[in-house]
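yo

u said u wanted the structure for the complex thing, so here. seqs first:
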Amino acid sequence: DIQLTQSPSFLSASVGDRVTITCRASQGISSYLAWYQQKPGKAPKLLIYAASTLQSGVPSRFSGSGSGTEFTLTINSLQPEDFATYYCQQLNSYPRTFGQGTKVEIK
Amino acid sequence: QVQLVQSGAEVKKPGSSVKVSCKTSGGAFASYPISWVRQAPGQGLEWMGRIIPIVDITNYAQKFQDRVTITADKSTSTAYMELSSLRSEDTAVYYCARASPPDSWGQGTLVTVSS
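structre next:
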């Protein structure tokens, strides 16, 4: 199975900050990576797919980059509604594993 | 707009089985994969498996291979996930999700396994 390791697992940030989350794959997955946002008690929401393509309706302050084994999710100018947990998922092979999550909290 | 509506919460005894349904509406059903993902309390997301209804092809995570069955009823646009030999560690919220990567999710179904 492909392992995905997110860093950091937790980060504290302020409104307006730029935030970067990294997802590293245990083997190359080309650009078959998606990012999700999850708020407490809610289902995950797709933010980015194919490593860098913004899902329709997602604000442009979210962006993704990377290929192969290293990927990043960047949130420019963090907004109050962005405080949540973020997950990466690889779609290169089965099982479609997730990273362990990164919780973004208010400083 | 695509909607996925899951069946209600379940409380099960260890060793029993649970079957969760996921009814889709507002879009094509058969040609999109339906995945099942679970989340134990306070934990991360765990992919269990998926089905492509139009060809009835399934893929399962090795961890659940012997205990999970995912099916789809094209006539009612409903997918099902059955998990057998339940144990306390299976207590979780179970989500269905449509497409790859999943862009529409069900509301989640809490399954509690307790004696």
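Chain A has a mean pLDDT of 97. The CA atoms of residues 34 and 49 of chain A lie 4 Å apart.
cya
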